[in-house]
């Protein structure tokens, strides 16, 4: 029978008895071995895991250690760098502070030195300056104001100018050397404007010039300028000429080339367009007091009784009626130039401030225009009064306190006995330099008469003056020639003043005495017969005529005459000054007649524009320009090389026993030079007796004795004792 297997339930299974399984030893050993191997494997795995974990932990610890070390090192480095930086900053701060203290100390030392220098100069002049000021004005508050402003201008003076002041103080005779030579010109005529002048400094150097006189350049009204002498603003340059900044740049450029700059300072009057005049015209009493205003003719009439007229023909009288103001105002020169009232201390103070302002722009030489006219006194001529000398003396002291490098040049166009006082005295000097006006006029008298006797006498007067007195010598300038000669002497020789003036004016116009001169009269007075003369040196010497007539022989003679006059001028005691254009023999310019603002003033005939096309020929000895320029250059070089030409050399005239020949002697430091000049168109002999050995002519190199020297027509020699 088929057996059916009963399906066992789970419970039944659990309840079934365990069946013992018997293992053999081999199976047991194998199992144990397997279990040991498995256990060993597990241990190995565990060990490897532990090793790995240990390695990881060690690496982590190493990394953390390294990171910590790097962090510590970085922090240490940062701390060290911070400490170093803080230390460096502290050191830098200390050094900066020390440097600042040092700089402040140095600045204070400089300021103290500057202050001490000023105080020393101020103290040297204070008592006299105060005494003169109080004598003139009796106003202590105005004097105190003046002193305060003097110091202000001194402190504003730049470093370079102060250095120049100090240098010149150590060498007060710096301008008396034989290397000083000047040139005067109108800025617009010479080079257009100030920047143009700056571009022409090389040319000026080639001319041997180290001192330039810039003719008036301050602001003036068009058509009423009097050639720039009617100033409407003392602190503004004419717009067509530039600006104050241009002036500073020009003076600085000049100083780099050791060229001194001179300007005109118009003290006597202002333009009617000046701010003071405008306020005065409006009736402002404070400003009316700066001029001479009168509401009726009573006092002006009294002035007119004693005061000469400057321009009797073109501007007669000394007063002008102002209908809009209802007053007369004093106008010594032209109606649009109002005389300043120096009785008013405000006028003096303000003009001194203008003077110092301009000095601080780099001006080296201040030309005081019309200085004899400055002080007015009823019942006098209003010329050369003592108060003028007081004012100039105070101006000299103010300059020596604030800007001692400045020179004062006085324009005193009068006879010698009235000119010389403007030097002051050696102990109390006034002007440093004066124009040798009478000698200039006497020179042209000599040209017209071919007689040197009056010129010799005039030179003897100049030579007798103290060596500290320095004259500016010139042949021509911007102004006319007035025939202010020694007529007392001339009358002894039969030359009466009126007739001789007529002869001179006729001669230089080319009408008398076999004259080759060309020119025009200025301010001719038909009543007195008096007149002045205008023309360039070249035209007055015959170069214009010879050129017009195309006469080569006449031209050579005219050039020689021109050079002779310059050689003679260089021989005089003082500083020679050229008028621009003379170095190339520039002739009269008649185009002024086409200008309505100039046609009435014949002085513009010798104020023509510089012909730079002609100047380009200056180095060509075959041209008129070259002959003149190179001839002058040679004379200038001799003057600079020979120490006997210093201003303080002994100078005298020597009798030649020939009325047409002048001889001037110069001696300094063992060296002697004779200058011989033939003022005649004929060959002459100078009958001098220099029997002391051989001489050499510095111009030609010829050796000769200074005895019976033959001189060709208009010839000249510089004979130096060997």
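Sequence proposed for the structure above (722 residues):
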């Amino acid at each position: 029978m088929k057996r059916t297997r009963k399906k066992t339930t789970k419970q039944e299974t659990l309840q079934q008895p365990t069946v013992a399984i018997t293992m053999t030893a081999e199976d047991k050993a194998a199992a144990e071995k397997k279990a040991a191997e498995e256990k060993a494997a597990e241990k190995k795995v565990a060990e490897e895991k532990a090793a790995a974990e240990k390695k990881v932990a060690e690496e982590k610890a190493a990394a953390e250690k390294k990171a910590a070390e790097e962090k510590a090192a970085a922090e240490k480095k940062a701390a060290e760098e911070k400490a170093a930086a803080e230390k460096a900053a502290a050191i830098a701060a200390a050094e900066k502070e020390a440097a600042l203290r040092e700089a402040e100390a140095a600045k204070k030392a400089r300021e103290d030195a500057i202050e001490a220098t000023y105080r020393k100069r101020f103290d040297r002049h204070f008592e006299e300056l105060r005494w003169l000021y109080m004598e003139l004005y009796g106003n202590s508050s105005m004097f105190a104001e003046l002193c305060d402003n003097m110091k202000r201008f001194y402190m504003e003076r730049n470093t370079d100018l102060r250095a120049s002041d100090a240098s010149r103080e150590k060498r007060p005779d710096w301008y008396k050397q034989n290397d000083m030579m000047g040139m005067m010109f109108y800025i617009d005529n010479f080079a257009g404007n100030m920047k143009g002048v700056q571009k022409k400094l090389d040319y000026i150097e080639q001319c041997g010039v180290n001192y330039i006189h810039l003719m008036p350049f301050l602001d003036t009204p068009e058509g009423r300028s009097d050639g720039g002498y009617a100033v409407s603003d003392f602190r503004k340059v004419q717009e067509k000429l530039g600006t104050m900044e241009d002036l500073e740049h020009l003076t600085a450029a000049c100083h780099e080339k050791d060229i001194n700059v001179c300007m005109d300072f118009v003290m006597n009057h202002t333009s009617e367009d000046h701010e003071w005049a405008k306020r005065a015209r409006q009736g402002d009493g404070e400003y009316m007091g700066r001029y001479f205003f009168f509401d009726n003719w009573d006092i002006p009439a009294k002035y007119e009784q004693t005061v000469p007229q400057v321009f009797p023909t073109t501007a007669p009288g000394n007063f002008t009626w102002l209908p809009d103001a209802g007053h007369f105002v004093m106008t010594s020169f032209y109606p649009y130039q109002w005389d300043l009232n120096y009785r008013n201390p405000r006028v003096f103070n303000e003009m001194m401030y203008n003077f110092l302002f301009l000095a601080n722009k780099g001006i080296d030489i201040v030309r005081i225009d019309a200085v004899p006219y400055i002080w007015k006194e009823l019942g006098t001529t209003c010329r050369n009064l003592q108060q003028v000398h007081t004012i100039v003396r105070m101006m000299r002291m103010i300059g020596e306190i604030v800007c001692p490098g400045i020179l004062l040049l006085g324009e005193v166009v009068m006879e010698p006995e009235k000119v010389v006082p403007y030097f002051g005295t050696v102990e109390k000097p006034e002007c440093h330099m004066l124009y040798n006006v009478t000698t200039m006029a006497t020179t042209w008298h000599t040209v017209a008469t071919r007689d040197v006797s009056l010129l010799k006498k005039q030179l003897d007067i100049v030579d007798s003056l103290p060596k500290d007195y320095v004259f500016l010598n010139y042949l021509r300038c911007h102004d006319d020639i007035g025939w202010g000669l020694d007529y007392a002497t001339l009358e002894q020789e039969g030359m009466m003043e009126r007739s001789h003036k007529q002869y001179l004016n006729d001669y230089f116009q080319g009408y008398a005495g076999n004259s080759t001169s060309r020119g025009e009269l200025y301010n001719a007075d038909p009543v007195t017969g008096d007149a002045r003369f205008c023309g360039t040196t070249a035209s007055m010497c015959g170069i214009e005529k010879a050129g017009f007539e195309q006469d080569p022989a006449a031209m050579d003679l005219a050039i020689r005459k021109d050079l002779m006059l310059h050689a003679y001028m260089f021989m005089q005691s003082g500083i020679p000054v050229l008028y621009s254009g003379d170095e190339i023999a520039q002739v009269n310019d008649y185009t002024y007649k086409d200008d309505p603002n100039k046609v009435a003033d014949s002085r513009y005939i010798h104020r023509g524009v510089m012909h730079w096309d002609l100047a380009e020929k200056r180095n060509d000895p075959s041209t008129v320009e070259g002959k003149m320029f190179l001839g002058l250059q040679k004379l200038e070089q001799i003057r600079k090389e020979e120490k006997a030409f210093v201003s303080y050399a002994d100078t005298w005239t020597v009798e030649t026993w020939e009325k047409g020949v002048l001889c001037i002697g110069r001696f300094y430091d063992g060296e002697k030079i004779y200058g011989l000049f033939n003022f005649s168109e004929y060959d002459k002999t100078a009958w001098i007796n220099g029997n002391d050995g051989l001489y050499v002519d510095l111009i030609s190199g010829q050796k000769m004795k200074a005895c019976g020297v033959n001189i060709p027509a208009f010839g000249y020699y510089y004979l130096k004792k060997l």
